[in-house]
Amino acid sequence: MSVPSRIESQPLPLPNFSLARAASYLVDLIFPPACGSCGRVDYRFCVDCQRRLRAAAISRIPCQVTALDAAAASGKYSGILQSALQSFKYEGALELTPILAQRLISLLKALAWSIDCIVPVPLHQERLTERGYNQSQLLSESVALALDLPCQPDMLQRIRETSQQARLSQEERRANVQGAFAASASVAGTSLLLIDDVVTTGSTLSACAAALRAQDARTVYAIAVSRA
Ligand SMILES: [Zn+2]
Predict the structure, then answer these.
(1) Would you give the distance in Å from CA 196 to the centre of its chain?
(2) How far away, in angstroms, is 166 Cα from ligand 1 center?
(3) Could you tell me the pTM of the whole model?
(4) pLDDT 10s digits, 88-134
(5) CA 25 to ligand 1 center in whole angstroms
(6) 81 C-alpha to ligand 1 centroid (Å)
């Protein structure tokens, strides 16, 4: 019997490990999650509520945002859409990604904007580590795949940590995010689509657009699942 002189060793696959996800798994064991819409235990967002979310009407809400060529949202931030976005963003209900992305895909098909590339609104590295995912990037990747467009998260970076916009007034929001983003030189001459989950005053999208324009982006559009 021949003995192999060297055992072919394959590197062990590294698990997709993040401390935040491991911690959230442990928390779920001790405190089971409840559906973000109806409260049913053991679901972050139960199948019945997912069905209602899928059936929720898609509107075309134009948003006026400084520095953008056009912006739109697929619905108002209320009812099942609001619960879904909160579960998606804060409770790790990532199973909602395709349902929420489908709203953006339908809206984009109706808008027929000419887009070269999709850019998610970036999270600062610290917040990304804490949450374990960037909800805007998950939506962007899903939309990009469906529309056969490139998704380029590295075209835009958050260079400064900012306070949570939710607690701030409109004026404070603008000051909070001004200069918080930097774009790569590769955006020059391109038509870009920014994707975010919720647009409130538009100050984050506006600051992103300003950074992209500073690097000579030709056109900057933005789309969000909902407008608050
Ligand atoms: Zn439910």
Answers:
(1) 5
(2) 25
(3) 0.85
(4) 999 999 999 999 999 999 999 999 999 999 999 999 888 888 889 99
(5) 20
(6) 12
Contact indicator for 127, 161 with CB cutoff of 8 Å:
yes
**Domains with residue ranges and CATH for the chain:** 30-163+174-227 (3.40.50.2020)
Rounded CA separation 41/36 (Å): 10
Contact 207, 179 (CB under 8 A): yes
The Å distance, Cα 215 to ligand 1 centre, comes to 44
- Convert 53-80 to b/e letters by CB count within 10 Å (16 or more is b): beeeebeebebebebbebbbbbbebeeb
Centre of ligand 1 to C-alpha 178, Å, is: 38
Summarize pLDDT for 166-180 with one digit per residue, the tens.
777 878 877 888 889
Going from the Cα of 34 to the center of ligand 1, the distance in angstroms, rounded, reads 8
Query: 153 and 122 in contact (C-beta within 8 Å)?
Result: yes
Distance (angstroms) between ligand 1 centre and the Cα of 93 equals 12
Residue 38 CA to ligand 1 center (angstroms) comes to: 4
Query: What span, in angstroms and rounded, lies between the C-alpha atoms of 122 and 45?
Result: 25
Cβ-based neighbours of 211, under 8 Å, separated by 6 or more? 156, 181, 182, 183
